[in-house]
Amino acid sequence: MDLVPEMLKTAKREIKKAKVQTRVKQLLEGSIDDLSMFGDETFDAVLCLGGPLNHLLNIKQRVKAASELVRVAKKDAPIFVSVISRIGLPKTILVGFPHEMKYAETHLETGDYVPGLNGEGFTAAHWFLPEELRELFETQGVEALEMAGLEGLSSHHEKETNRLYKDQEKWKMWIDVLLKTCTHPSVVGGAEHFLLVGRKQG
Fold first, then answer.
1. What local confidence, expressed as pLDDT, does residue 69 receive?
2. Under a CB-based contact definition with an 8 Å cutoff, are residues 173 and 128 in contact?
3. Around 159, how many Cα atoms within 13 Å sit in the side-chain half-sphere?
4. What is the SS3 assignment for 83?
5. Cβ within 8 Å of residue 20, ≥6 positions away
6. Above pLDDT 70, what percent of the chain?
7. CA nearest 74: which of 24, 99, 39?
8. Rounded distance between C-alpha atoms, residue 78 and residue 90, angstroms
9. CB-side neighbour CA atoms (13 Å) of 200
10. What residue spans of the chain are helical by DSSP H?
11. Which regions of the chain are under pLDDT 50?
């Protein structure tokens, strides 16, 4: 499910490329703050990945989206939600977009980002703190089981990480380090993206 038709076309191409057409039931256009096309407790698991919650600019929209994602999950179903990190973002700007440094400081207090009048910069968004995402879903009846920094200690070190892959012995060691540290609070908040793993309570 995606709000943008072009993204659904991309998904269709990737599904075909991966040869998993028989495992995908449907591609739907829509927004996560309105899942009225689905009944209560429809799904065995719910995945909200890629940061769609970041693009709901109003707190009421984000609460509604969280409520909807929980509503369509069956009792005890796992719920996975990833977002862009408010603390990780200044490092992203430092590494890849230093010309946008003025946004590194201004977004920290509220997490809200609005691009310049000429449309420069990223699309309008709200950046999350780990505790903010946790609270958003706990108030909707979700038990937070774990949080993880998705890029882990490799966050903002893409070149170095890719270079290490050439040495498979060191690569395996690094993967082990990433897996052992990705759930540490200091890593979660500082990653570019982080993930909440939760379970819908009865």
1. 98
2. no
3. 2
4. strand
5. none
6. 97
7. 39
8. 31
9. 25
10. 5-17, 59-71, 89-96, 102-106, 130-138, 158-164, 168-181, 185-190
11. none
Q: Is the Cα dihedral 59, 74, 193, 125 positive or negative?
A: negative
**Residue type at position 76:** D
Q: 90, 67, 88, 70: which is closest to 78 by C-alpha?
A: 70
Q: How far apart are the C-alpha atoms of 193 and 186, rounded to whole Å?
A: 13
pLDDT at 139: 97
Note the pLDDT of residue 119: 58
Q: Which residues pair with 78 in a beta bridge?
A: 199
Q: What is the DSSP letter of 196?
A: E
| Model pLDDT, residue 118 | 58
For residue 74, give both structure tokens: 């069956």
What pLDDT was estimated at residue 102? 75
Q: Please tell me the predicted confidence (pLDDT) of residue 170.
A: 97
Q: Where exactly are the structural domains of the chain?
A: 31-200
Q: Is 151 exposed, middle or buried (0-12, 13-18, 19+ CB in 10 A)?
A: buried
pTM score, two decimals? 0.90
Mean pLDDT of the chain: 93
Taking only the tens place, the pLDDT of each residue in 58-104 is 999 999 999 999 999 999 999 999 999 999 988 888 888 888 777 77
DSSP 55: G
> By three-state DSSP, how is residue 171 classified?
helix
In the block, tokens 């899942």 appear at: 35
CATH superfamily of 31-200: Vaccinia Virus protein VP39 (3.40.50.150)
